[in-house]
Design goal:
The chain is built from one helix and 21 strands. An eight-stranded antiparallel beta sheet has the order 8-4-5-6-10-2-1-13, with no helix packed on it. A four-stranded antiparallel beta sheet has the order 14-15-16-19. Strands 18-17-20-21 form a four-stranded antiparallel beta sheet, with no helix packed on it. The chain has 264 residues and is mainly beta. The protein is globular, with a radius of gyration of 19 Å. It has one helix at residues 162-166; strands at 13-17, 29-32, 44-46, 51-59, 66-72, 77-84, 86-87, 94-95, 100-103, 119-125, 135-136, 139-140, 145-149, 171-180, 183-193, 196-202, 209-217, 223-229, 232-239, 245-251, 254-257.
Length: 264
């Protein structure tokens, strides 16, 4: 089996669930990361390993997969990515691990408009069905549910410090790892509470470091906290009900900045 990675950009944390859908068979996994499913709509999906795209199409009356991509890998394995909002690759295309292949969506057959946005992911062997067990970074997925960080060797998602820093009632809805040259400097967290977003950049407590945290509500000016801190930068808060936000931060020159997303 190839060394599959989580099919999302490095540093993102996603929760997979194999039992949420009543139509699942075997080891099919649905992935989400936001507080609500629609918060994930349009988020990037990447190839779990290098291979050749053998299907990039939309089924409207057959499988119900809607926009979906199938990649053939070495050893007879294929990965399936379904219900995409759109597809970024074509049949016959060679892709590397981490290549963008589409975006999270809710496409399916007509008349099934009640589906919420998610990535449906499968690993199949020699064209067989049902799927086989999924592994990420060499570790078996923790069926029926597990939260994982992309590109982190299958380690469980870290504890949530958002409520501690942003205040009671705030919940983490996203995070990004600040990593360079094999070293992890810290993480940037995006929290949400009753129409308000909050960003904090966090590192292990200790020596001071140059740190930033920023938050921009679409159509408004960017709010930034910048300084030399022992633990965290922020919290940076902004009311954002029904609006997209751009967020990020940095530690010692290693930074992350999202596009406008999490429109709620």
């Amino acid at each position: 089996m190839p060394r599959f990675r989580l099919p999302f950009p490095c540093g993102q944390v996603w929760t997979g669930n194999s039992s949420r859908s009543s139509v699942h068979t075997g080891y099919e996994i649905d992935f989400n990361r936001g507080r609500t499913a629609e918060a994930d709509n349009g988020d990037t999906v990447v190839a779990a390993a290098a291979g050749k795209v053998i299907r990039s199409t939309r089924h409207t009356t057959q499988s119900g997969f809607g926009h979906h991509v199938v990649i053939q890998h070495s050893g007879g394995y294929t990965t399936w990515y379904a219900h995409l909002k759109y597809r970024s690759v074509t049949t016959g295309q060679q892709v590397a691990a981490g290549t963008k292949i589409g975006a999270v969506g809710r496409s399916t057959r007509p008349g099934n408009g009640g589906m919420s946005s998610h990535l449906h992911y499968e690993v199949r062997y020699n064209g067989g069905y049902p799927p086989v067990e999924a592994y990420f970074e060499g570790r078996r997925f923790g069926y029926p549910q597990q939260a994982l960080e992309a590109c982190s060797a299958g380690a469980p998602a870290p504890a949530d410090p958002v409520a501690q820093i942003c205040g009671p009632g705030y919940r983490k809805i996203d995070e990004a790892v600040l990593r360079k040259g094999g070293r992890t400097y810290g993480r940037v967290y995006l929290g949400y509470r009753n129409g308000s977003n909050c960003v904090a950049t966090v590192k292990p407590k200790g020596a001071r470091a140059a740190m930033t945290a920023f938050l921009q509500v679409k159509g408004a000016a960017t709010k930034t906290d910048r300084g030399s801190y022992q633990w965290y930068a922020g919290p940076v808060r902004a009311a954002a009900a029904g609006k997209c936000v751009r967020w990020g931060g940095g530690i010692s020159g290693v930074s992350y900045a999202s596009g406008f997303e999490h429109c709620r």
